[in-house]
Amino acid sequence: MQTPALLLPQRPSDAPETLSEYRARGGYGGLANAQQHGAIWLRSEVTAAGLRGRGGAAFPTATKWQLAADAAGDEKFVVGNGGEHEPGSDKDRYLVAHHPHAVLEGLLLAGFATGAQKGYVYLIEDMTAQRAAIEQALAEATAAGLLPFPVELHLGPTTYVAGEETAALESIEGKPAKPRQKPPFPGQAGLFGKPTTVNNVETLAHVAWIAREGGAAFAAIGTAESKGTLLFTLGDEVVHPGVYELPFGATYRDLIEGKGGGLKNGRTLRAFLPAMSAGFLLAEHLHVPIAYETLRPLGTGPGCGGVKIVDDTTDVVAMTIGIAEFFMKEQCGQCPPCRMETNQFVHILKAVQAAKGPGYDDKMKKLADFSRKKGRCSLIEMAAAPVISALSCFADDFARAAGPGAAPEA
């Protein structure tokens, strides 16, 4: 499948794209268009584009912007969230390190659209290359007089929940990076209680393209409900690991076999996880178009595009325990239902692994149902999705591990 290079154009260098390089391909043309036509025009173009957030939640970008634009107050903020910490996903790190000006232009556009007077680029403390790239881009853009408002770089802690949008705001305010209770939403009361727009850095890079090329051009790429392109990360299980861009409507076969070159060492694909916080898909689903409307009926979604492979040698029970342990470790401790769910998942799964697991299937499903929507952030659902999916996709593996008389309940 032909891949439109919206975010990852072919370049002769692996170094961060400079201002002159970015401008040579039309960079900051979108900002000029917005300044000429106005904030209402920009919001309408993003609405026409059908752009959804690329941080994993897929919330309509224009809707989020409108909330902040309509909010009362003469002080507003905008935040570019690059706090990527989901294992298996490197797309935000790659984008910021290689195309910092696209992220910066998108941030300026989001601020212009929502009436912000200050912006922040939010990264994580261990993002050395990304920090250097953004600092270079900020220096170049400042010297060129391109910043309509000041932009600062903020480094958050190396915890998973620090990437959640309200946790990022807490960190910028100098507090522990833990999610806030919502509502109010950041667009109503965000940084320092002021209306704030938080967008993922991939979302912002798409905004820069849309402002330059138009919402209709973006909407022409993809499917009925899923517009544009998406960044994916493939790990060392494939011949050609890396970060790739594909349009919605492409298939996981296009990604894993076409871009990744297939599995290494002649392994056979058994299943794959589109993102750590999603549900599993089996090898028979390789042909399904990647889109929200096609993946939703299968109990999953593209998430942030960090694909994990299950081959014919994978111990799926051990793999599921590893995922559950990650969420148990990374939950922030604020919400008792989340603490209970994540700890109990690990406890029950380890009992299965030790052949002491009768009733495991029903216990975990009831636990997930009880905990749903009871956390300050979505981690409580994210932790449940791959575990409950694994019970269904790999029912025989779990039954064998759990021991005689421990088959899943009907």
What does this protein look like?
- This protein is α/β, with parallel strands linked by helices and 410 residues long.
- Helices cover 44% and strands 12% of the residues.
- The chain has helices at 19-24, 29-37, 39-49, 61-70, 91-98, 100-114, 128-143, 165-172, 201-213, 215-219, 252-259, 292-295, 316-330, 336-353, 360-371, 379-393, 395-402, and strands at 77-81, 118-124, 151-156, 196-200, 229-234, 242-247, 269-273, 281-282, 306-311.
- The strands form 2 sheets. It has a 5-stranded mixed beta sheet, with helices on one face. It has a 4-stranded parallel beta sheet with strand order 3-2-1-4, sandwiched between helices.
- Helix 13 runs antiparallel to helix 14 (336-353), helix 13 (316-330) runs antiparallel to helix 16 and helix 14 runs parallel beside helix 16.
- It is globular and about 70 Å long.
- The mean pLDDT is 95.
Give the total of beta strands. Answer: 9
Shape: globular
Total number of helices: 17
CATH architecture of the largest domain: 3-Layer(aba) Sandwich
What is the radius of gyration?
A: 22 Å
Q: Reading side by side through the largest sheet, how are the strands ordered? A: 6-5-9-7-8
Distance between the termini: 42 Å
Helical residue percent band? 40-55%
Average the pLDDT over all residues and give the rounded result: 95
Strand content: 5-15%
Sheet of most strands: 5 strands, mixed
Class derived from helix and strand content: alpha/beta
- CATH-assigned homologous superfamily of the largest domain: NADH-ubiquinone oxidoreductase 51kDa subunit
Low-confidence stretches: none
Query: What is the level 1 CATH name of the largest domain?
Result: Alpha Beta
